Amino acid sequence: MNKTYAIILAGGMGLRLNKRTPKQFLLLAGKPVLVWSLQTCNALAEIDHIIAVIPEEFIPQANELVAEYDIRKMLKIIPGGTTRQESAHNAIVSDNFDDNDILVFHDAARPFIRPDLLRSCVSEAGIHGAAAVYVPVQDTVAEIRDDFVVSVPPRDRIYYAQTPQAFRFSVIGSAHESAIAHGGFFTDDVSLAIAAGFRVKMIEGDYSNFKITTDFDYQAACRMAETIHHHGRGHR
To answer: What residues are paired with 130 via a beta bridge?
Structure first.
């Protein structure tokens, strides 16, 4: 029986926030950022196991949170790499996955992921081999070179990438092998899969599934978390 693994990527130090604590451990409505997505995955029937990728020195802290919040599906916590690509690769080689297992990669810094988007990623990756979440850009975008505008791509075809990004293990495993063999730096797993020749199904996402990168994002996330908390419905 094939399994579905949620890979929660929290391997970075969140240095752009200029805080001493990595952003995945900052509080949102009294609960660490990391815990929001762990609880969502833990409660989702379609997820069998969770693997969290954490900076090595913060693994004990993550273990405490797993115990405190009763994250029963946690399979293991592994150290992150120096890049996102390395952290994802660490997860891929951390267990003996079957070719048809589904690996769902999600940024811990996107705490407000909706369960239905996770479900869609899992089912579409099962059908197509790879699926990922995107939202249409809301502003006109431009390509700039040497401080001059060189092109303004048509907005109707441009999307912001989000996570989750889900893959059959056979797809993402060979995509990472290909990246190692040919070199190259990729900022997400979809670009890695496309470079290896795979097609990726697009799933329309949700603007509330934003990534906490700057202090402005963190303040916005705090307000959103408080709203969710005061409505008393959890973020599910």
So the answer is: 167
pLDDT in tens, 127-152: 999 999 999 999 999 999 999 999 99
User: What whole-number distance in Å separates Cα of residue 51 and Cα of residue 62?
Assistant: 12
The answer to whether the CB of 109 falls within 8 A of the CB of 14 is yes
Contact 151, 143 (CB under 8 A): yes
- Which tokens hold the place of 102? 């589904």
φ and ψ of 106, to 5 deg: -140, 140
Domains with residue ranges and CATH for the chain: 4-231 (3.90.550.10)
What does the pLDDT look like over 71-106, one tens digit per residue?
Answer: 999 999 999 999 999 999 999 999 999 999 999 999
Q: What are the strands, taking DSSP E only, across the chain?
A: 4-9, 27-28, 31-32, 49-54, 74-79, 102-107, 130-136, 143-145, 148-151, 159-168, 201-204
Alpha-carbon gap, residue 171 to 73, rounded angstroms = 24
User: What are the DSSP calls for 183-227, one per residue?
Assistant: ----SSHHHHHHHTT---EEEE--TTS----SHHHHHHHHHHHHH
Residue 79 CA to residue 26 CA, distance in Å, equals 19
Whether pTM exceeds 0.85: yes
Q: Determine the angle formed by the axes of helices 33-43 and 115-128, rounding to 10 degrees.
A: 60
CA-closest candidate to residue 109, choices 219, 213, 229: 213
